[in-house]
Amino acid sequence: MTVNLDKLRQAALQLGHVEPISIEPDGTIWLGLDTDRTYLTPAQQAAVVNKANDNIAVATENRNTAVAKLKVLGLTDAEVAALIGG
């Protein structure tokens, strides 16, 4: 599962890391300013990615549940998409 930078940043915050959080194109995550960086360990980085993936899975499941409930009410796909933005 590909995770975008906003999802990674949100996951890092949920795991207790503090801003500023920077994520390099190669996936390296570090905290602090350019002049005072603290790099996350590989285990910490893996935890952030796992948390982001978990958040995405929960959001997907919640969306699927909402879609199913709306479909039971007889809404069309277009109406469901209009209501939940997708």
User: In order across it, which strands form the biggest sheet?
Assistant: 1-2-3
Low-confidence stretches are: none
N- to C-terminal distance: 19 Å
Order of helices and strands: HEEEHH
In what range is the share of β-strand residues?
5-15%
Count of alpha/pi helices = 3
The shape, in one word, is: elongated
Number of strands: 3
Helix content: 55-70%
Mean pLDDT rating: 90
Structural class: alpha+beta
Q: Major β-sheet, in short?
A: 3 strands, antiparallel
Q: What would you report as the Rg, rounded to the nearest angstrom?
A: 17 Å
Question: Could you characterize the architecture of this molecule?
Answer:
The structure is a single chain. This protein has helices spanning 5-14, 42-72, 77-84; strands spanning 21-23, 29-33, 36-39. It contains 3 helices and 3 strands. The longest helix has 31 residues, at 42-72. 57% of the residues lie in helices and 14% in strands. A 3-stranded antiparallel β-sheet has the order 1-2-3.
Topology of this structure?
Elements: H1 5-14, E1 21-23, E2 29-33, E3 36-39, H2 42-72, H3 77-84
Antiparallel strand pairs: 1-2, 2-3
Q: Could you list some keywords that capture this structure?
A:
alpha+beta; elongated; single chain; 86 residues; 3 strands; three-stranded antiparallel β-sheet
